[in-house]
């Protein structure tokens, strides 16, 4: 079974190829790729048009949400059990937009939110997203710049499937120059500091998550071929530098990786793939084990708005919490089914299987591989223009060949978007 999953996933990743602006190595929750039906330019134009209030030249869109109202259950095969608990996140703020001529827009968003837990009061946290951005779409030049803080509750690593608050401070800049009607040159650079806010938590399992705090510097450059609106193919290279600033085991690394991207979108067929041929080495004095593999994700969708099916696969490197292992390969193969009920409701179901394969620092360390299965779904109802309700459920199970490594995660909840919750 493991061999079939790995062979199928590798075949998909090799047949399809990788996003010039994709997020650098980070654990993503189960469920497959998110739908991105519009470009960033189209999204900005839509948001400006939908902004409800005008303060002189500034357009303001209020935002309010009550989300992730969920019952969460964690089960570990050894050690003290985490309590089953209720959690919810409530937020209210605004997004603002300032047009600087017909081709440039400044954006500013203040979206604070409070995370509440019924029994685990130490997990209650004031989070939020605070960003300043500039988006310029000129005749032959695209320039996108943003900087700020994003602090949200999420699962950081599959080793400890427990939601905690994590903060990312940083910024990125992306430029694209039109060389001809179909050929573009792009370059991007980002710097981010990730901090997992677990110092005040009493849970011994999550207390070590701050060992994954790190600074990431990533630069990318390449060429993009876009002969038609439906097609986009990009080839380039990426340079990364990662610095860990906590713990006795230093996983700092750097490397240069060729990368590729392919995207196609039509009325009934969509596919995308983001691939990087990673070659990472330990930085001076670090204990990182060299990594030479393909990472990325791919998805193939067939169908219409009423009914569509998606086959997806991904492989990513996830840094390990253990002092015995440097990292793990998170490999998944899944399928998702989307059902549309008119224009105001939609359901999505998914199921996926995969493996977490750990790489040890030293020979002789016990082999570790976890079989992972996840399934879940969501239903969304759009009641009015600024009111939608969603129901979600997720179940993940980890079967480890390391004694005491079995665990599971279950969450069932709802989300209510009141304003600007698209």
Topology, element by element:
Layout: H1 2-15, H2 40-50, E1 53-55, E2 58-76, E3 85-99, E4 104-117, E5 125-137, E6 141-157, E7 160-178, E8 183-196, E9 214-225, E10 231-244, E11 253-265, E12 269-282, E13 291-303, E14 307-319, E15 325-340, E16 345-360, E17 369-384, E18 387-400, E19 407-419
Antiparallel strand pairs: 1-2, 2-3, 2-19, 3-4, 4-5, 5-6, 6-7, 7-8, 8-9, 9-10, 10-11, 11-12, 12-13, 13-14, 14-15, 15-16, 16-17, 17-18, 18-19
Descriptive key words:
single chain, 422 residues, mainly beta, 18-stranded antiparallel beta barrel, globular, disordered N terminus
Number of strands: 19
Average pLDDT works out at 89
Shape: globular
Proportion of residues in extended strands: over 45%
Number of helices: 2
Radius of gyration: 22 Å
Largest sheet: 18 strands, antiparallel, barrel
* Share of helix, binned: under 10%
Chain oligomer state: single chain
Spans of at least 5 consecutive residues whose pLDDT stays below 50 are: 1-22
- Cα separation of the termini: 39 Å
Secondary structure category:
mainly beta
Element string (H = helix, E = strand) = HHEEEEEEEEEEEEEEEEEEE
